[in-house]
Structure of 4-aminobutyrate aminotransferase:
Amino acid sequence: MASFLRTASRLRPAAARSIAFQSSKMTTAVSFPAQRQYASAAASATISNDVEQPFFPDEPKGPTVKTAIPGPKSKAAIEQLEKVFDTRSLNMMANYNQSFGNYIADLDGNVLLDVYAQIASIPVGYNNPALLLAATSPEMASAIINRPALGNFPQHDWAEILETGILKVAPKGLNQVFTGQTGSDANELAYKAAFMWRRQHERGGAHVEFSDHDIASSMVNQSPGAPQLSILSFKAGFHGRLFGSLSTTRSKPIHKLDIPAFDWPQAPFPVSKYPLDQYAAENAAEEQRCLDETERLIKEWPQPPAAVVVEPIQSEGGDNHASPAFFRGLRALTRKHNVLFIVDEVQTGVGATGKFWAHEHWGLTDPPDMVTFSKKAQAAGYYFGNNELRPNKPYRQFNTWMGDPARALLFRAIIQEIERLDLVQNTATTGEYLYKGLERLAQAYPSEIQNLRGKGQGTFLAWDSPRRDEVLKKAKTVGVNVGGSGERAVRLRPMLIFQKHHADIFLESLEKVFKA
Amino acid sequence: MASFLRTASRLRPAAARSIAFQSSKMTTAVSFPAQRQYASAAASATISNDVEQPFFPDEPKGPTVKTAIPGPKSKAAIEQLEKVFDTRSLNMMANYNQSFGNYIADLDGNVLLDVYAQIASIPVGYNNPALLLAATSPEMASAIINRPALGNFPQHDWAEILETGILKVAPKGLNQVFTGQTGSDANELAYKAAFMWRRQHERGGAHVEFSDHDIASSMVNQSPGAPQLSILSFKAGFHGRLFGSLSTTRSKPIHKLDIPAFDWPQAPFPVSKYPLDQYAAENAAEEQRCLDETERLIKEWPQPPAAVVVEPIQSEGGDNHASPAFFRGLRALTRKHNVLFIVDEVQTGVGATGKFWAHEHWGLTDPPDMVTFSKKAQAAGYYFGNNELRPNKPYRQFNTWMGDPARALLFRAIIQEIERLDLVQNTATTGEYLYKGLERLAQAYPSEIQNLRGKGQGTFLAWDSPRRDEVLKKAKTVGVNVGGSGERAVRLRPMLIFQKHHADIFLESLEKVFKA
């Protein structure tokens, strides 16, 4: 209760009462099993002897499964929703009033340990008390009902909100932010910045005016005003589903089919063999092959790339990893050819990999030109590092909203919570513990866990499963909500507040699935 | 005070106290001039003798201008913001704590009548008490801190939020919604739906599987998987600034320069002559010319259009109007050629034109296939009318957020406020009154107000001004915040709570500018 009380003591009385209400509602409404005994052979070895202080002592002690999922109440609600909203992708109808911390509840009294977290988006737990404070503050209410057109009529404290929030965690070497709405949006804003930057260089600098030919051709979507330039991305990469971002997305046909796309190049992304130490030489050769092909495409593609975009860990595409050396090689290549280097941290950003930004693992001395993010930030923007990336005229990067102060306020509260609980360190420590547990399970069930990956990358772990979809489905029956990526990967995306005792529950549940 | 009290009586006590606080803060912090006498010759004729009940009696009685804008405090704040955020498009640094109803305040004690309203986005007034209630509700707090991935884990009351909110105002003939994030996003989602629908027809129906060639070519951005299809838009149209939406935007070069675009067709939009009754025959011929050219492009463009997208009133492009007959002609043409008809109501939607949706003015018997909106809805989505527009498989129209329950809750409160105060009727009535006043001013100052337009379109009025930017700038010195569109239009975008007494103040202020 200590951490909760520390937070609560800073609160306005009304909000504090609201939290107390929330908290008591949680503990009465959900029936928790008594503290579990972890008797299973493989999993028991993973139980920590450390005395671990839970971040949220009011959290359920473990999952509760009362019915099949979906149960009868969920089925009725899904049927109602289907009339007005496509439910074919529905995974679970949630009751967020009954969800808390790492646990997601449904309408039938089922409460699952959630290691999927709204596709890697919930950062510090459902109904986090500190976020509830931020959400019920007068600043938040004003931001919601007086939503400004930020580019024209920013609110008086916008600089302060940025400086005490988003910019406080700006990646090294980058000190400015452009606020957008979603991950796809952030990527497209970054691509636009790259195209403007490239054309400005081609023209000879910011002071050189657009030619009449530029102006006239831009209005009929023809070159040079609408230039024949490209963004280079990687096979199996995912960067969003708007028309520009989708042209760089190469994850799955179902994401791309029937949508017109730009004729932009894709380089191969390294296909690493596991375990890494056993295939060091082969993997290094594979990475060099991919770098060589990237360089060839930069030099030879008919529509020259203005930027290269890459995920630190390819997420939707199947949790594909590459070494820091590969990414340093990309930075060197892009620098050499005067192409911008955009790191898409939409899914990897904000603490889950044991660093605040996943690209911190690379040891770059020359930072990326732009870093995009969304998801755990509950907001999106792109960072840039110098004035060169500001377009030469106003209204070139502009839209009505230009972000959302409400989401920026929430992200500030998320950052404060991450700092208060030292959550980046937590994902590093818990991730290592979880990885070891998975290693032991992989030894006991080698056909179930293949190509285990993400060592040293916090809780951002994954493995291949020959019966992936069945495993995901059965996990619900033992109280775990977990997702997949690519064709056969199980991807773990727990929240930043996922601790060793949660890892124990997860590992035990997973073994139950394997045994069944 | 009656309307406010009616709202307040339904409130939780804490929220009601909060509103009372807000309201008293407003009345004490801003110094209001005494009730004005409208002595000016041209404007005085416009003063209504009706006894008009003000919606918000606590609103300022008129503007206050204390300093040049920006004043010293604003200048300091802008300087601070410039370090981290591009301020070259900044119009006015606002203090939303001090803004109320139709009035926007800055940091130097200036309080302006706002007929620009965050680029046509604020629907029912700054710090609207009913919206404050919604923003401080437990549902809102939960929606903010437990943001779901709606396609996978919708909240249990998502159907109810849609049904009692967005869908309650669905345009005639359309009964489903796909929720997005912004106007650009909504348009791109609609375009994607159109492309999928078109290709499905070409394949022979929803049951026909994608071919191997479709699948393989989609992954390398080539036809047929990434088809050579297009969206037809109109010259001077604006549909957003993402890569797909920008390819249909034809407003200004500064919006498009240096950004790669699809080779999509643009048809001419009618250039009407004013006054309309004087040029009826010429305008009809011009509209027929545009329809003929549209049909030619549909039939002949190498990348056939899957849809035609049009704004009911071209807004960013200069407030260009066409007749209902033109739009009925477009509907007929698209029907004839089996092309979808998308109406972009991002700026015109939600009550400002004297109808909830501007396309209601057209008297269509065959509704549009999709209607997109954002701005005053503080949210975006696209409506569609039948199951044919649901893609044949899940995950084809999908993203992490799929909208935002917090914004959907706010839009529900906006709809309730529109109903409670009968605001669509108000924009019709006030618009007519305002138009007449502008007509009189145009007669008195014919060189200042040219091509006055928007008669019968609520408060969605505009005119051309030979010294437009100067007029906009000087308007601030007499207490009015007003915006432009296109190269020389002054566009009025007051909120839905803009009443006759506001119109009087606006007209009087405008005359001051003309006289100066």
